[in-house]
Amino acid sequence: MAEKRGLFEDYLSCHVCSETFRDPVSLSCNHSFCSSCLQKFWEQTKNKNCPICKRKSSKDFLTVNFTLKELADSFAGRQKSGSSETEKREKKLTVVCSKHEEVPKLFCVDEQRAVCPVCDFPHLQSHKVVPVEEAVSDLKEQLKSDLKSLQDKRNKYKKVEKTYNEVIQHSKKQLLSTERQIRAEFNKLQQFLKEEEESRLAALREEEEQKGRTISREMKMIEEQISSLSDSISAVEEELQKHSVPFLSSYKDTQSRARAQSSVSDPQLVSGALIDVAKHLGNLSFRVWEKMKEKVHFSPVILDPNTAYCWLYLSDDLTSVRLGDTKQQLPDNPERNTMYTSVFGSEGFSSGKHSWEVEVGDHPWWSVGLAKESVDRKGECFVSPKYGIWCVLHRSGEYTNGEDQTVTVKKGLQRIRVQLNYDRGEVSFYDPGDATHIYTHRDTLTEKLFPYFCVGKAADVKTSDIKICQTEI
Predict the structure, then answer these.
(1) Which of 231, 264, 304, 439 has its CA 20 to 30 A from that of 425?
(2) Which long-range contacts (CB under 8 A, 24 or more apart) does 132-137 make?
(3) 279 and 350: one domain?
(4) How do strand 426-431 and strand 415-421 relate by DSSP bridges?
(5) Beta bridge partners of 320
(6) Which H/E stretch holds residue 354?
(7) Nearest Cα residue to 306 out of 155, 173, 449, 158
(8) Domain range enclosing 406
(9) Residue range 14-18: mean pLDDT, rounded
(10) pTM of the model
């Protein structure tokens, strides 16, 4: 009996403090020590080697060996009530059965929980049970997948957040640029109105001066006639004062002069002496507006800069587009074309008839037509009705349609007319130079169509602007 006790005492004693284990922990080499004794030993030696075999511990975190602890406490006569709070917490976290308090070794896949091999054995005979280590490995892989999904989701939100920040910054630039252009346009109009005002005031003053000179000439002639008549009247009155013989000798000359002047036609007021107010004020606003129309131009299609590819540059009036040499920093907003050098019109059509002309000049590479509102603006999209684009393409002298068919033109196109009859589902293209029909595509239209423009660049060729021209709609 004493021999057995000696064996138990050796088995349950710590090789560091030589006392019965307290909170024993076991290393990967299967040697066990009091948790506090091992920690002190490692602190003194400044390594994590086993105090007995000197093998380095492969465990980063050591848990209490509760089986060994229960044996040591029972051997030393210690009660469970004296267990440390740390032990209670760790035991509570690891045991799965109050009757068999040991670290779980089995995991039920069907019920997704650790199980007691004794108490749960009858219940688990029909369930899938795997070792805890295997279950932990599988569940960690699943959790890693969930973690990746969360990280991907967060990255998507960060990408949208970044785009919104770019949108905010670009909107500020748009505000300043648009304000500047609005002011410039109104300055032009104000300058025109100012010049027109000065011109009309000058015309008014010129008429007043001209008619003033006419009246002055008439007044001068009248004054001369009045003076001459006054002299004749004085002469007649003087003649009437003479006596018989002197009167008879001189009255004939006086009478002849008086009768000559009396026979002169009566003075007449010159017509049109007053300023022609009606000419200056009549329909003034309308006549100014008509003249203003000669200074301004209407475009049936306006390009939308929010849809333009980052290498495309639009004119200030949004009627011309060219392919630039530098990339612009533009936000990746939903409307923007990011795969191809395309830009859309600002307004779409969902009914009626519409027509506009595009001046392509000698540009070596262009596509002009219409695109569905739902066309893919971010991914791969071919210029074809199958992908929602109806157009005529020009590539280095060859003209084709979106159905990969060559179209014949009499001469190189300088302009092309796009004509839409939405209700009949027709998109047609013409050479406006001689009204020659180029190509017509017919389809059932169910969604809004937008004017479509795409410009490329041929090698060693300087690209020019493609401009939308005024035409009847």
Answers:
(1) 304
(2) 132/104, 132/105, 132/106, 132/107, 134/107, 135/107, 135/109, 136/107
(3) no
(4) antiparallel
(5) 467
(6) strand 353-359
(7) 173
(8) 303-469
(9) 86
(10) 0.64
